Amino acid sequence: MFDIAPEFGALLVFIEHRFYGESMPFGDGPYSSPDTLGYLTSTQALADFAVLITSLKQNLSAVDAPVVVFGGSYGGMLAAWFRLKYPHVAMGAVASSAPILQFDDITPWSSFYDAVSQDFKSESPNCFSVIKAVWDVLDDRGFNHTGLLELSKTFRACKTVQSADSLSNWLWNAFTYTAMVDYPTPANFMMNLPAYPVKEMCKIIDSFPAGADVVDKAFAAASLYYNYTGDQKCFQVEGDDDPHDLDGWGWQACTEMVMPMTVSNESMFPPDSFNYENMSEDCLLYYGVRPRMHWITTEYGGHKIDKVLKKFGSNIIFSNGMRDPWSRGGVLKNISSSIIALVTEKGAHHLDLRSATKDDPDWVVEQRRQEVEIIRGWIDQYNKDIEQMWQ
Ligand SMILES: *[C@@H]1O[C@H](CO)[C@@H](O)[C@H](O)[C@H]1NC(C)=O
Ligand SMILES: *[C@@H]1O[C@H](CO)[C@@H](O)[C@H](O)[C@H]1NC(C)=O
Ligand SMILES: *[C@@H]1O[C@H](CO)[C@@H](O)[C@H](O)[C@H]1NC(C)=O
Ligand SMILES: *[C@@H]1O[C@H](CO)[C@@H](O)[C@H](O)[C@H]1NC(C)=O
Ligand SMILES: *[C@@H]1O[C@H](CO)[C@@H](O)[C@H](O)[C@H]1NC(C)=O
Ligand SMILES: *[C@@H]1O[C@H](CO)[C@@H](O)[C@H](O)[C@H]1NC(C)=O
């Protein structure tokens, strides 16, 4: 999407979210106290954007210039919410892979992991079955120290792992993130990966003899994610994820970004449940706060979004690729003539925002073309309205 700035004669402004990157208001973290982290909220971040954009336009003597906000993932949610909260600051928003309906009970809680599983199942039922079978095997073998030693070798772990859960998490992350970034061209978003990496993972699994060990198969598939470039000597399976090494998202997830998720028995992951009390206790333990479980839908809405936005909103593109599990919590239907859902069957996590490449399939090229056409329509209308205002 950065590509399209020149044809609009647009100034590109990338605003960093408070408490991420270099925008640390209290100096370098880690912050562990609610006294400082309390200032890390989406509401405050949106207000930052409004202040910055307004000030920048004044300084550039361009107060009437149209502003369109763009974002992907959480950034996509912010883009959509910004348009709703600050319609006088941004006249349009492109919200790519923005799961603004992943809150409360708006979207079925199991849909995320069902979608991940569907990606794998649709490539190869065998691939799906192998992955589904691996978790119990890991649990059994990782039960005692001898087993963990063996498994650590199989997983080429840099250090002997302390529990089979670490191995499960390591595999789990590889499969989930690969589904998210199942792009049609080679990419380096989370990791360096080939085109259609889910298909490549399943090819690896399917190339084993049927009787081979499921752990070997699953490990080889996950290696595509962690070691596609071939430069890993060993794997940091257990990493150094100290729960007290707090990052911004963990805090946000424990305060306002409460996205309930479960794992159904139809999925390829071990079934799992969700309950609010349990989560509340965990958050109290880690961060000393209890989540505001339903704040997001109170603050920004989400329930009956089609009816609400049809009457109230305008100029938002919600784009989603159905290969991306986050698409299930996105807006997948057109709401009005200017609140448009663009859905691609084979798209992945904010694919449309990525730079164009010569290998892009036609449907991505078409999606991006359509977005440009819609944005141009908004701007033309905006300029007409401004002109009339001065007459
Ligand atoms: C606009 O100019 C004022 C005065 O020089 C400055 O304080 C402010 O930071 C500028 N705003 C932006 C967004 O650059
Ligand atoms: C560890 O568990 C395996 C079965 O998973 C068993 O065969 C083996 O004897 C156990 N080793 C020890 C030292 O308990
Ligand atoms: C990573 O891939 C390279 C090349 O295939 C291989 O030599 C190396 O052993 C792999 N690393 C691990 C930890 O498996
Ligand atoms: C899956 O879960 C559903 C509902 O929770 C239950 O009715 C069904 O028997 C389960 N299926 C299997 C194979 O466990
Ligand atoms: C969370 O739920 C599990 C069972 O689902 C239970 O074993 C655990 O103790 C609970 N944790 C808290 C903090 O309530
Ligand atoms: C929404 O409308 C646009 C045309 O304005 C169309 O191209 C698109 O396919 C529609 N989206 C859905 C999900 O039907």
From TrEMBL:
<dbReference type="InterPro" id="IPR042269">
    <property type="entry name" value="Ser_carbopepase_S28_SKS"/>
</dbReference>
<keyword id="KW-0378">Hydrolase</keyword>
<keyword id="KW-0325">Glycoprotein</keyword>
<dbReference type="GO" id="GO:0008239">
    <property type="term" value="F:dipeptidyl-peptidase activity"/>
</dbReference>
<protein>
    <recommendedName>
        <fullName>Lysosomal Pro-X carboxypeptidase</fullName>
    </recommendedName>
</protein>
<dbReference type="GO" id="GO:0070008">
    <property type="term" value="F:serine-type exopeptidase activity"/>
</dbReference>
<dbReference type="GO" id="GO:0006508">
    <property type="term" value="P:proteolysis"/>
</dbReference>
<keyword id="KW-0645">Protease</keyword>
<dbReference type="Pfam" id="PF05577">
    <property type="entry name" value="Peptidase_S28"/>
</dbReference>
<comment type="similarity">
    <text>Belongs to the peptidase S28 family.</text>
</comment>
<dbReference type="InterPro" id="IPR008758">
    <property type="entry name" value="Peptidase_S28"/>
</dbReference>
<keyword id="KW-0732">Signal</keyword>
<dbReference type="InterPro" id="IPR029058">
    <property type="entry name" value="AB_hydrolase_fold"/>
</dbReference>
